[in-house]
Each structure stands twice: as C-alpha cells, then as structure tokens.
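Box 3.1. Reading complex inputs
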Amino acid sequence: MPRILIVEDSPTMRSLLTSSLEELEGPVKIVEVASGFEALRHLPREPFDLIVTDINMPDINGLELVSFVKNNAAYRDIPLVIVSTERSERDRDKGIGLGADAYLVKPFEPEALRDIARRLLDDAE
Amino acid sequence: MASKGGVRGGNKAAREFVSEAEEILETMRARLADLSDCLGAGAEADPDLVNALFRAAHSLKALAGLFRFDPISSLAHKLEDVLDGLRLGRVALAPPLCAWLDETIALFGSLLGQVGDAAALAGSAARIEELTAGVAAITAPSAAPDEFASLALDPNVLRALTEYEEHRLRESLRRGRHIAVVDAPFEIKTFEEGLAELSSALRESGEVLSTLPSPGDSLESQIRFSLLVATDLPPAELAARIEFPGAAARTVRAGRAVPAAVAAPAATPAQVPAEAEGDAPAPIPELESLKSISDTVRVDIRKLDDLMNLVGELVIQRGAIGDLIARLGGRSETAKIGREFAKVHKVLDRKLRELQSAVLEVRMVPLRQVFEKVSRVVRRLRRELGKLVDLEIRGADTELDKLIVEALVDPLMHVVRNALDHAIEPAEERRALLKEESGRISIDAFQRGSHVVIEVRDDGRGIDRAALRRRAEQVGLVEPDAVLSDKETLDLIFAPGISTREQVTETSGRGVGMDIVRSNLAALGGVVDVESTPGRGTAIAITLPITLAIIQSLIVGVRDRRFAIPLNSVLETLVVDAGAIQVSEGRSLLNLRGTPLLLRRIDEEFGLTASARAVRPCVIVVGVGEQRLGLIVDRLEGQQDTVIKPIQGPVQNLRGISGATDLGDQDPVLVLDLSALVEDALRRREAA
Amino acid sequence: MSGAAPTHPESWEELARAASSHRSSPATAEALRQLLCMGVDGAPYAVPVENVREIVRVRPITPIPRAASAVRGVISLRGEILQVIDLRLRLRLAAVAPARSNRIVVVQVEDGRVAGVLVDEVREVLRVPESAIGAPVAADAGIVAALCANGGQFVSIVDPERLLEVGGRA
C-alpha cells in the first residue's frame, strides 16, 4: 500500500489534497502534516512513496523541504510534488531545480493530482 | 524534425522517448530563437524565455534519465546546468553562449536519430565531450552578476529561497546588514525546541531569512539546520550570542558600519517602499505545465478492449467468409468466382492479421514498471526487516499485454516477499553458513515463444522438503505412507493450507498463499514451477502467455459438445484405436513412444453422456509448465483464432473451464483450463 | 424485424415507449416504480427496469458442465459471454419445451454482475406507485422480494441481487 505524506498548512487545502488522493485506485495510506517541521519529524518514521508539499508554510518553506529530501540519501528516491499558487511560478521553477518531480498549480483538478500521483507512484525508482 | 530512421524496429520506450524529446527540442529551438532576438536587439535576456528553456532542458534530462540513454543524459544534464546558471544570473547571456546552445540542441536532434544504433551513438561521443568541455570557457560569470552570486553562500541555501525570502535578502543587502549563516546539528526527535531557541536568540539581533534543513551525520536520526540571518551585529558579536552546542556562525557578507541607532533588536518588517532597484519583474501567470506535450496519447485500456473485440469479431467473420468460399469452390458453376473471391479473401486475411498485431502491440507494455514497484517494495522491506539483500533485475524491457502485467503485480510481489521474508536468512545465520552476508534475489524476464517467463531466484535456505511433507500430512493432504517424487513434494507448496514456517509476519502474512498465487496466475493462463536446493536457494518460474486477446485454439468435439484448447499448450495430437488406451489402477495410460502418458477423458471429466463416443478417439497431448497430459476427445474440428472471454454470471468457480469463445456460428464454445485439468489429474494420481 | 405477435414486444425501445404512454394520473405526486413484467408458468413476475439491460430472443445456449441446475449454460451476446439462469428452474417449476415467446432478459445488478434470465415471455412495463407494493406472502424460492397489486392480480417482484446468487456447483 503506497504511503503518501501531505505537507500543507491550510486545513482546507489539506483535506482537499487528502480526499483527492483517497480516490486513487487501491488502498493508500495518507499522513497529513501541517508544517515542514512536522514533515521532517515524520519522514524517518515510515517509508513514504510520495510527498505532496505546499510551498509557503510557516516554519520551513516547501523549497527547503524539497532541498532536504533531495539532498538526503535516505529520502532522495521519494517522488515529490509541489503544490503552488499560480503566482509563484518562480518558486515552482526553483522547486523543480531542487529536484521536485512534479508540480501542481492551485486551484487544481483532483484528477490532475491523481494523474501525477499515479505516474510518480508507478515510475518511482 | 530529426530523422527517426535509427529508431525503426527499436522498442516502444525508445520511440516514446524520441517523440517526446523531439517535441521538447522543437520548443527549445523556438525559445532560443526568441532569446537570440532579444540579444540582437541589445535587450536583456527575458527571464520567462530563460525559464522556459530551463524547464524544457529539465524535462529532457528527466526523460533521458528515465530511458537510460547515457550520452543524451549527460549532455542534457550539462544543458540544464548552463540554463540554470543563466536563469539564476550566474552566467551572462552572450553570443558565444547562444551559439553553444544552438549547437547543443542541434546535436540532440541528431542523437535522437541515432537512438537504438549503438555504433552511431558511440561515434557521437567525441562531439558531446567537445561541447561539454567547451562550455566552461563561454559561461563566464555574468557581467552584471546577480546580487546574490557574490555571496559566499552554499548554493543550496540560495536555491531554496522563495521569492519573498529573496526579496528580504535583497532588502537586507541594500540596507547594509551583515549576512551570516548559522549552522547547527539536532536530534530529529527533538529539533523543534532547540531550533526555536536558536531562532529566537538570533531574532533578538536581526532577522532569520531562511531555515534550511539538511541531512545530519546520521541520515535518519539527525538533522542539520542552516539559518540565513541578516543582522546588525558585527560577526564577532553574533558568534558570541550563540550559546548553542555545536552551532557555528559564518559571515557571508560583512555589512557596512551600522549606525548605532539602527542596531536595535528585532527586525522591522519590510516597510521600505518598493524601489525600482529592488523590483523583480512581476512573474506573468502562466498555466503551462511541465508535462511536456508530445505525440503520445494515453488511452483507456477499455477502449483498447473494445477495439480488440471489434477485431475479434472481424476475425470471426473472416472465418465465415472462408467457409462460403469453400462452398463456392465446391460447385463447378461457381468455381471461377470462388477462386477470385479466394484471392480477395487472402488479402483481407493478411490485412486483418496486420490490424490484429497492430492492436496487440498497442496493448503491450514493458515489465519495467512492475519491476520498479517490486524493487521499491524490496528496498522498503529490507529496511523494515533489517535484512541485507541485493536485488538484481534483468529483462525489464520484456513486453506483455497490459492486463496481464497488471494482474501479475500481486502474485509476483508475493513471491518476492516470500523470498525476502522467509528464504533469505538473517545476516548472522548467513555468516555462520559461510554464505555471503548479503542475500541475493534476482528477477529475470524473457520471452519464450508465445510466452514470457519470469524467474525469481533467491540464494536463501531453500525449501525444507521434510517440513513440507510433515505439514502436508498434518493437514491431511498426503497419506503418511504415500510415495512422492521430489517434484511432487515441492509442488505441495502450491497446495492450500501449507506453510513451512508457522511464524506470522506482517510482510508476507503467513508463509501460505502460494496456492493463491498459482490460482491467480492460472486465471491468466499462466503456470508456476518451483525448483529448490536446500541451503542454496529457490527458483520460482512464472510462465504467462504474452497476450490474452486473440489466441489460436484447437476446436475439439466431445460427444455432442465442442471445446476449445489453447493451441500454444498443445504439443501434438494423435488418433488412436480405443484399444490402445490402457488402464492401470483406474488411470488411463497411453504408450507414447515408450513413455507412459497419463490420459483424461473430457466426457468423464464433465459428466457428458449424450450420444456415443468415437470408435477412434483423438488424444491431445498438452504441456503445462513441466507437466504432460493427454486429453481424450472424439473429434478434431479444426484450428481457429479465438477471443477468449470470461464467463459472466452467478456461477463463479467453473473448475476446468477458463472462459468461452464465440466462433460466430452457433453457440459459444467453452475453453478448457489446462492448468486446472493437469493439476486435478496429478492430484487424483496422488490420491490413487 | 419480423412480424412478431403484438403481445410480445420486439425490442426494449418498444417496451419503453409503451411504458411512457401508460402514464397514470398526473395528480399522483407519489413516486412511481417501473417494473418489467414477465410471465413464467402463466404467473406474472417482475424486475425493476433499472436492473434490465436488454431483452433478447433465445439463442443457442452452451451448457456448462457441473454448474447449478438453474444455470442453463452460456450465451454469447455480441462477444460477451453470459450465463443464463432459467427462471422456471430457479422457481423450482418443471421445465417445458421451448416456445417462440421465450426471451432472455439481461439483468444487471449494482456491483456490475450480469446474467441472462430465461423467461416464458415478456409482457409489459408496469408503472406502479410505491403504495401498491407490499411484502411477499412467503419466501417464494427466496427470490421474490415483494408483491404488487396490478388489476386483479398480484405480480411477484423478484430481487435481482438474490436472483443472481445461484450458488456454486450443483
């Protein structure tokens, strides 16, 4: 069962991300956290197959989380999706530059997220 | 468009790669032309153009990495680096760089034409090296360097700044504050408290611009943080203020002498009016996604099923036309038109076959995705179980029908988990046995005729025959005095209720489940064979048909019924005298060139009694995995292309029947499930 | 289309048209249920129309060995292979010789399971108010879920879910 970590400070956005991913075929385990710090603490606890993160968050920003994940040999292989607003295109590009595997622009279509998730869960190396 | 010549006959992954890469190159050529125009007009490089180029290069790199085309991969990497530098202002856009980009993109075009042609690719290696080496000379630091480029800053810190944080950094620089990086290690479980303490200490004298986590000495239990700080305190004072174990401060840029009045604690949030200098060009909202546009189309597999059904129906109609032609040819007055008709029919037949194989090809996918899934699970399990295991995968390009590939995931995963969980010994045990400390699991896939074989081997403890036998006797599968061959004993692992290790684990449930694996694979027309050497390891071979869609079947008559037998499992057919069939201990046998062949009568199997048996029955010799069985039928009615369909309805376990097929004439014909028939025959023999 | 007796509508479309012309008084605010009424051994049985996928003439049925006796075998419907449940046998009535009026009603339930149901004849689509539907008198072979008054007769409403549970082998 794939495990997905959702990092998002807005509760509404978080539940939207979760409910979109719960619709994936087959069972998935979803762990929701509300900040980058929580994400950092959660990563070593269980092996995740996908991380979905917001960019603008209170403690560390999503880019810093991407940088951490992609520079850590233990997590580097976990595919990571950035969810950002339409306006933060530059941040999005930076995220890709840091090694994020895909991005999604808010407001997003649930199916678009699932599409990305399916692809990354399948492709994950 | 670059030539696709080199790809002809290559695999589908390569073709997809080429089509998508060509799309990307096309985009890059257009953007680069625009960029050259900018430069020609004396304007600055449009950041959007540079970004678009970077994103395209990034897609290209990701794509090349995916398809493991090393020369392309390394060049794409270089291209991405250069564009990243350009994008971040580390590299200045100058005519030589434009020329380099031009040449590199052109080289890509010709490399794509060489995909699948190893010799040609090797020939291009020198050119790639030349371009790679040449770029250093032309990527001189930007003439008007980015304001951050001169900071002695870890590029990772810079790269993870959001636009807002960049703005704050720019502001701090403008105001002449000292910029420093404070680095400190933490335990992952408790970092928040310590980090909060450190941050608040730093905030007393300035602003924390960013907090970048990075791996600690122990990847999973420790974490480091680099805090980018803008402060009015001189470096020495800042260092003195940090009373944190293991923390170190490093000045990145010394500020101007600070007027005493400003050296107040706490950062004043950005009150500074936006000035022309600090204004980054407002990003233009753009909905273009990174997903590259390509001429590949994703299709719902059900649509392909519909297409396949149509082809199947055409195949049936073709058969009917063939019959009509035979009838025309049989009468002298229509013989001539019959012959002409036959010619047309022949062409139709050929085209139909082409159509059939084209549709089939669309359904074929490489096993790679399944194998990657397996390898992820193995990585996770070895972490969870703390076992040392190397996984080797070969033949990931082997293709199978998409539906079969999907249905293969669970059984394959089960087999691999069993190997990891039960077969591979813990490291200490392996050391004691003088085995390599690290266990080995290999998965090999290869095509054999119209089947694909997937072999999972481990070098673990092997199957304990005595334990297996004991267990089988306990659950009443085998009588204590029954004599079993080694093969028959091993095959007990596929019997329901067998587990050689009583231990229940989360990983593979109980050691049981091989019966489920076998029956799941049988539903796909597949078989599982096992070989095992105690102490040395076990090999499980899964054999699957390449496609379920259209297969050649032998149509046989049994009393008043017809059945279809998949031709790929038929070894030979014999017409025998009823007297040649011997009976021994209630089993029918045939002397097949000196070897006894076990026989089964299909009419007895299914309780058919209407109308009489043929005087000279036919024996269909079928092979399922390593097993042989002769099926006794009354008539051979011919070979046909058949589309095998599942039987829908309330009755679920039709033992011995794997589906049905419509031959376009009368009632549907049931398809025999050979693996079940063989299995039952062998079991009955054991019971006898 | 050949000239079938008018009592045996040829296609599902005709039945649907017949149904819509049958509208009861518009004053009835109550929900109407549409039922496909079928004759078995002279008695009326019905299934909700939402469970009926199509109605086809009887075609050659291939018996399946060792299956429950109420399952007559399989038919091919445009390449799809469906089991056919004989409603007579399912209701434990005696088998009779096939007749021209026999039809196979393709019944589908919510989870996607589908099967053909062989009936003596297909009669009409009934539109009945919920109030006309009541509990069955007895568990009639276990598949009749309700009774519905229609004219002077009671129509037995068959539960399609239960109809499609025939059990494994004979």
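In summary: Helices of chain A lie at 11-22, 36-42, 62-71, 89-98, 110-123.
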